[in-house]
Every structure is written in structure tokens, then in C-alpha cells.
Amino acid sequence: MSKVLIVAEHDGAHLNSSTAKCVTCAQAIPGAEITIAVCASDASAVAAQAAKLQHVAKVLKIENAANAHLLAAVIAPQIAAIAAPYSHVFGPSTTFGKDVMPRIAALLDTAQISDIMAVESATRFRRPIYAGNSIVTVEVDAGAKVVATVRTASFEAAAEGGSASVEAASVSAELPSHTRFVSVSEAKSDRPDLQTAKRVISGGRALGSAENFNLLYKLADKIGAAVGASRAAVDAGYAPNDLQVGQTGKIIAPELYIAIGISGAIQHLTGIKDARTIVAINKDGEAPIFEVADIGLVGDLFKIIPELEQSIG
Amino acid sequence: MKRILVGIKRVVDYNVRIRVKPDGSGVVTDGVKMSINPFDEIALEEAIRIKERGGAEEIVVVTIGAPDTQQQLRTALAMGADRALLVESTAPVEPLDVAKVFLKVIEKEQPFLVILGKQAIDDDNNQTGQMLAALWNRPQATFASKVEIAGDKASVTREVDAGLETLEVDLPAVVTTDLRLNEPRYVKLPDIMKAKKKPLETLALASLGVEPKQRVKAVKFEPPAQRQKGVMVKSAQELVEALKKKGLVA
Ligand SMILES: Cc1cc2nc3c(=O)[nH]c(=O)nc-3n(C[C@H](O)[C@H](O)[C@H](O)COP(=O)(O)OP(=O)(O)OC[C@H]3O[C@@H](n4cnc5c(N)ncnc54)[C@H](O)[C@@H]3O)c2cc1C
Ligand SMILES: Nc1ncnc2c1ncn2[C@@H]1O[C@H](COP(=O)(O)O)[C@@H](O)[C@H]1O
Prior knowledge:
The structure holds 2 protein chains of 2 kinds. Chain A has 9 helices and 16 strands.
């Protein structure tokens, strides 16, 4: 039987929805028994949220003052110390999971499967490579421990309604002090979160300035959308780095994605492959973004954005 | 000697349109332009800048790969690396074994800093630096957009989902690069000539005592699902109507 351990992502108070997506992925393994591990200084609130997720059998609280910030070097030895009974150890393919999971895998002397997008069996998975330009089916030997990250855009979050048992785990692992948290930039907006928003409007280099990005924010507010950006727009300082969509930014799967003044480089398209409806607005009718767009409009964004606002009313 | 180790992987150039072989056995790489992994160029650029500021004395670039990876090492030497090490393997080597090779090289070279790319853009694994840091039992600062060295510590700003996170790590440590860390310099022709005289050492993988394993087997490669051809609209108004019809805007 498969026993899956999921490393919870959270901010100390709230469980990140990426964890619920890992649960859905784990549940695709036939007969999986799912445990969630919550590393925190005080894990109670997050553990209670994890226990409500359907299909979760058990939640382990791993409490330690050193877990106040989720540092990979500190978390990894604790997870490795409790990993023995599990056949699979999963984490989300977010910057948190990408940072910590390979460190866990190495401590367990096992390989990692990155970005699982589909489960074919307990030992067989599908994942994207070459910025999503190929999908590879990979297999590990039966009996090998599978450490993996889960591509969150490929799975729905598990619903609530479960009632897993919550236990405190005692972990004996030597924790390093060589890595210290200093600060994190405050999440500043009350706008919808880019990674979970149903609608996203992204701007590219064509916006030309940070001020012009306000045009996007205004439009986004009108339809309750989150705002994203291309790498070129972020590099130019028009938008903060956490708005970048793509291979090296966020991989998202909104119902509606509107790309404005974005050419559609493969690295950008990687981030929006799972968007339900893609709209492209670009003054160049030959721009590659139109090859993936469900609805395309050729024209000048500075003229079109005000018209859109007006038509939406 | 204050030394920085930089990982260099040879990958299909990021501008190449990737094609999957019709028999599903892999991706077409024959006759395709190969380059230094873009994140590794950034890693090398950062090492060069640290050295230029007087923070390091020697930069050693390391690759595990086939003999023709020499090309990328020569480019790295032309950019500003001092020495190159090619650990030869014709078969692909998994991140865990790459990390084990790096650990062997670290034991010999005793660097105060190892800079790798955050991910190789062929397999998109994003694992090697973290695995190396675990095996070495040293700090990791992944996805770096700013690195400041001060004495035996480094302050590293990281690109995380929430925004920017800053860590302080004791050295030696492993740093992996994100895109905004720097913009790599162009190689100048005279430097290419000079690089021919710089030392490039070749070692057999087996001589390092690492036995690579194939833990993850690729069974089948497929092209991604194609999206259906879309429609073009003529005006903003038409666009809004189409979205309303789909129930995507109220
Ligand atoms: C390793 C690597 C990773 C990368 N990762 C990412 C990533 O995660 N995300 C990402 O986005 N990119 C990424 N890139 C960069 C990517 O290759 C492109 O350079 C980038 O996406 C281009 O951004 P853009 O479309 O905004 O700019 P451009 O390519 O310059 O496109 C601007 C577009 O705006 C249009 N335009 C100009 N003026 C107007 C106007 N007035 N009205 C309407 N349209 C107008 C133009 O026709 C053009 O199509 C990566 C690159 C590398 C090498
Ligand atoms: N074969 C290799 N030779 C040298 N460096 C490598 C190799 N494979 C991976 N790396 C380094 O590890 C980084 C991350 O690679 P990966 O974990 O495979 O995505 C790369 O950007 C390189 O710096």
C-alpha cells in the first residue's frame, strides 16, 4: 500500500492552497493513505485546517521554535527523520516546495520527480520538460521511495469536509543554525492572488512604464482579476517580481487569461498552458501569442484598454 | 586561495523550437544549437563580479557531460573563469549524482562559495543545488536575485512566491541563481583567444568514485497537447461580447 507524506506549505497562520492540490495528486495513487506534516513554531491553527481536507488520514504537528520560518536547511532534516514509513513524500511545486523537497530527497539518498502533472501509478508519473514543450512519462523502481513536487496548476484543491486525526510528532534531528531568516517583502495588495485567481490580466514590455501598469490594475479591478506580467515587464521594473508568469515565474491555470502587449515567448506560454480561455491583445498580428489565443484582437493597447473598460461598463 | 565553484551545464539553446522525436524516444538534439544553460551564465557572471570586487581569487567552472561540453567550458573561460573541469560522462547523469560529483570536487577545491543555476532548462529539474547543499551539510540560498558577501557570511535576496526574501548564511554555502541576479556580459573575441591558454582538465566520472544510477527512467516523450485554433475579433466591444457569452465577465 502507498503511504504519502505531504509537506505542508503555510505562513504560520494559514495553510496554502498548494497543499490541498498535493492531496488531490496523492489521492490519484491507488489506495494511498495520506498524512500531512506541518512544521511550525505553533502548528495548531494550520494543522486544524489541514485536518479538514478530504481524504487526509492524519496530520502531524512538528513544532519547534526553529520552524518559525520555513527554511529548507531546517525543515529538510525533520521531514527526512520521519520519512521512513512512507512510500512517497510530496510537496508543492511552489518556491517553498522547490527549495525544500530536493534537500529532503538528498538526505534520503533518493531522486526527486519534479512537477508531477499526472499520476499513472504509484511508480509512474508524467511531467513537463523543456519549458513544457515535451511531456515525459517517468518511472521509478517498485519499492523506491518517491520524493516529488506537484505541479499545482494540474490539480484542483482537495475539498474540505474531512476530519483527520491530529498528532504531535516528536522528531529527533540535528537542526543547523548556519541559515538565518532576515526579512520578506510584505505582500501588499488586497487584489486577488495571482496563483489562485479565476481571472488574470497580464501586461508585457509594451506597457512601457510602471505608471502605465495602472491601466491594467484599473481594468483588473473592474472584472475582479489578478494582475500578472511578462519577464520583460518585470525586468524593466514595470511590475514586481512576484507577478511574473512563466517558466521561471508562476505557472497558473485561471479560467480567463488576458495577455496585453505580450509577444508570447515559449517561456511565457509555459506559465499559461492550462488557462481555460486565453485572450491576446497585441498590435502585431503575427505575434506568437495569437497561436495559443482562443480570442485575439489586433490593435494598440493604449486605445483598446479604455474601450474595454467602457464596454464592460 | 579564495575560490568560487560554478556549475555549467550544456543544454539546447533557449531559442530553439523543441521537437519531440516521432517514435517518442526523446527530444531532437542532433544538429541543434547548444549553449550554456542561461542560469549558469548568470552564475558565472556573478562569480566574476565577486572576483572583480576583490571578493574571490579564482573561479573554477565544472561540468559533468560529454566531451563536446568543452565548447561551453571554453566560452566560460572566455567570459572570465580561471580554470575548467570536465567530468566526462556520455550518459546523462541525474541531479543527485551531479550533486555527489560536485561534493567530490568541493572536497578537493575547498571553495567558499558554489554558484549553480536554479534549473537546467532541458530537464527543468531545479534540484541539484539543494541536493548538493544537503549532502555537504551547508546552507542553501536558492533563486537568488542579489548576493552580498561580507566576511564569512553572505546576505542573499531570493525570488519567492510572496515577493523577495532575504537570508543570511554562513559560508561556505550553495547559491542558485534566478534571472534577475545580473545580466551576463558578452564574450569578446580577444578573450576567446586568451581562453585557449587557460587550463581545462578532464576527468573520468569513475575516477571520482561516484557511480551514477538511473533512478528515474524516461518511458516515453510526447509533445504537449495542442490548443484549438482560436478566433479573431475586430474590436474591444466584440471582445467583451464574446467574453460575456462565455460567462467570463459579468
Ligand atoms: C531561461 C529563460 C526563462 C524565461 N522565463 C520567462 C518567464 O518566466 N516569463 C516570461 O514572461 N518570460 C520569460 N523569459 C523571457 C522570454 O523569452 C521573453 O523575452 C519575454 O517573455 C518577453 O516579454 P514581452 O512579451 O513582454 O516582451 P516582447 O517580446 O518585447 O513583446 C512585446 C509585445 O508587445 C507588442 N506591442 C508593442 N506595443 C504595443 C501596443 N502599443 N499595443 C499592443 N501591443 C504592443 C509587440 O508587438 C510585442 O509582441 C525567459 C527567458 C529565458 C531565457
Ligand atoms: N551535468 C551538469 N554539469 C554541471 N552542472 C550541472 C549539471 N547538471 C546540473 N548542473 C547545475 O545544477 C543546476 C540546476 O540543474 P537541475 O537541478 O538539473 O535543474 C544547473 O543550472 C547547473 O548549474
